[in-house]
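Render Membrane protein in 3D.
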Amino acid sequence: MPVLAWVVTRAVLLLTLFGPLRFPGDDVRPDVVVIYHGWYERLVTGSFPVGDVTWQYPPAAAAVFLAPALLPFLTYSHAFYLLCCAADATVLVMLLRAGRAHGRDLAGAWLWIAGVAVLGPLVLARYDVMVTALAIAALLTAARHPRVAGALAGIGALVKAWPLLVLAGARPGRTTRRSWGAALVTTVGVSAAFLAFTRGPFAFLTQQRQRGVEIESLGALPFHVLRWLGLWHGTSRLHYGSFEFLGPYVPTAARFALAGAVLAFCWLVWWRIRARTFSDVVLYDAAFAAVLVFVTTSRVISPQYLIWLLGLGALCLTSHSTVQRRPVLLILAACFFTVLEFPVGFGQVVRSNLPGIVVLLIRDGLLLVATVSACRRLWHSTASRPEATPHDAGSVFGGVSKGERSRIKIRAKSSESQLQGR
C-alpha cells in the first residue's frame, strides 16, 4: 500500500514538472532549466562558477548538477527530475526497511510519502532530496559500519554541509571515533582532490559576504510586519539567488541569526557532554533535533529545507521508541504552510502583504515550537536524570509506570505476610 501511494503521488508531481498538469502559484522549474543547466555547462569544463554569486554550494554539489549527463537521451531538466525521483524512491525503500526492522512500523514511510506530496513538485526540482538520501543512509549504517556512516556524512557535508550534523548522537567511544574520523578523512581527501583537479572549488566561501536576510526566515518576520505597518522602508529583491530584505537594521538581524546558530551549536555540544543514553533511536532523534535547530536559526529558510526535516523525522518514526513524534508532526504541518507561501502565495510574501505575513508567522511559529519541543524531549530522554529522595516514591521507581508500582507494592506486601506467617 505505501508503494502504491508513492507511485500515484509522484506520478502527479512529475506530470506537473513535465507539463501536462499545472501546480498553483509560481513555477518551480526555472532553477533547474536555467540556473542548474548553466552551472552544468560551466562545470563540464572543470571549472566552478567563480564570480557567480548564486553559486553557494560546497564542491561535491558539482556531482549532482553533472548527474543528468547519465541520461543523455533526455533533456537536462527532465533527467534531473527523474534522478530526484529515484533519490525519493531510495529514501522510501530505506524507511520501509528501517520500519520493518523495528517491528513493521510504517509510520516513517507514510510520513515521507505524505510530506513530499504536500510540499509539491518543488521536491523534485531541487537537489535536497538527494542530500537527504545520503544523510539517511549514513544514519542507518552507523550502528554496524560507523566508518561507512562517517564517509557518507563527509560526502554529504561536501554536497550541502548539514549532513555532518547527523553524527551528533553517535555512541561515545569507538563508534564516535570511527565515524567522525572517517568523516574527517573523507572530507579532507575529497576536498584535496577538488583542489588538485578543478578550478575554484571553494570560491563559494567568499561569495556570500554581503548576504541579507532571506524573506522566509524567522529573522525576516519583524521586517515583514514593520514594512506592512509602514514603519520600515527597506526593500525585498532577488539577491544571491533568493529574495532577501535589504535596508536598515538588516545586517543587525543577520548577526542575531548568526549568534543564534552559535548558541544552538553550544547547546548541542552541552547536550552531547551531558547525555548518558545512546542508541540507534537516540542517534536518529539527535540528528533530527540538531538539523532542526540550525534550520530555525538560519537567516535562509528556503522551502526545500523542509525536505531535510521530513526525511530525518520520518526516520525517527520508524521506531516506537522515538521521543520526537510530536515535533515531527509539527514539521508535517509546517510543510502545508510552506507550500502556501511558496509557490502558491509567494507574491504576497515578497510584497509583505497580510496573507503572506500570516502564512509565514504560522509556518515559522511551527518550526520554532517544533525546535523547542525536539530539544527538550531529547534532553529529558538522554541527559536529564532527576535525583531520587527518600520522600519521592516516583523517583525511587525511576521510569516505572503507576500501575507497575502498585503491582510491585502488592507483591512486596504479600511476601512480607508470608514471612510473618512462617
